[in-house]
Amino acid sequence: MTEFHADDYGLFPAQSGRILACHEEGVLNGTSIMPNSPRKQICMDMLPEEGIALAVHLNLMEGHCVAPKEKLPLLVDENGIFCVSFASLLFSPFTGRYRHYYEQLKIELSAQIHTLLPALELRGEPLRLDGHAHWHMLPVVFDALMAVIAEEELPVSYIRIPREPIGLLLRHFPAILPFHPINVVKSLLLYVLAGRNLRRHSAALGRMEKKLFLGVLFSGRFDYGKICLILPDAEREAARRGWGLEILTHPGAVYEEEDARELTNRDDLFFLTSPDRMAEAEGLKLLKVKEESHV
To answer: Are strands 211-214 and 156-159 parallel, antiparallel or unpaired?
Structure first.
């Protein structure tokens, strides 16, 4: 099964409504909920009763922490707003802070999962996890997450492993141009980190659902043309492996000034207010038109 997925659901009602429009008018059938959003319950109430798979969007870079800020001095500032950097977490094994980050991450990740777990259970949804900007792939974060899952015996059915099939992408080069050059670096780094995490936690991950994943290289503008180009080969490759397929998009634009002012991360502010969000949303809707025209 192909899951057309949108990250960042639950930040704001208007932004979440744009994601839901891609479900109602397009092919979107999965979304991830920001567990630390103060408006998550309002947005949860907006969800349809069925037809859209949900996941917990573990978040360590935007907004406030869920756990008490006093327990997270390395992750948040005095106001409880996330301030830890990607580089600090990435290089923590070499700076002597790995264990300190690890313990604080366990506290926050557990709190984020449990703030949404009752609602997911009430809906009969499996517990699926992914990460904002894929920070959950950082070794110290992934190790902490897997420890929480094991220690609390959480019934996790799926963790996104953003390891894109490089050979499949190269098969369509240069037709897949343009894409942001920094996404090449991100895709390769995540490929390496995913390999490390898969080796380190092979036993636990082997019991979970597996999906072929696409969405990092085109992150920011995975539009209709690129999806149509890649999708047939991606579905064949997923079927060959006996896996599902996850196509990641970000159609949840934040265009209301009062909402944009509340974003605490500069990268998120740039990304979520970009006109590219509309291009991705339009692509998901055009795919439905294309599907219906072939019925």
So the answer is: unpaired
This prediction's pTM: 0.96
Question: Structural domains in the chain?
Answer: 2-293 (3.20.20.370)
Burial class (CB in 10 A: 0-12, 13-18, 19+), 272: buried
According to DSSP, the residues that pair with 162 across neighbouring strands are none
Q: Is 25 exposed, middle or buried (0-12, 13-18, 19+ CB in 10 A)?
A: middle
Question: How much is the mean pLDDT over the chain?
Answer: 96
Beta strands per DSSP E along 41-153: 53-58, 127-131
Q: Which residues contact 67 (CB under 8 A, 6 or more apart)?
A: 107, 108, 110, 111
Tokens representing 75?
Answer: 């992750």
The dihedral built from the CA positions of residue 130, 77, 185 and 18, taken in this order, carries a sign that is positive
Alpha-carbon gap, residue 32 to 274, rounded angstroms: 20
SS3 call for 146: helix
pLDDT digits (tens, 9 = 90+) for 183-238: 899 999 999 999 999 999 999 999 999 999 999 998 878 999 999 999 999 999 99
Spatial separation of the C-alpha atoms in residues 264 and 185, rounded to whole Å: 25
Nearest to 219 by CA among 245, 189, 180: 180
Cβ–Cβ under 8 Å, residues 126 and 90: no
Would you state the torsion angle of the CA atoms of residues 271, 272, 278, 280, taken in this order, to the nearest 10 degrees? 60
**Calpha distance 270→252 (Å, rounded):** 13
Query: Structure tokens of 237?
Result: 């490759």
Q: Which H or E element spans position 231?
A: helix 224-241
Q: How many Å apart are CA 152 and CA 219, to the nearest integer? A: 33
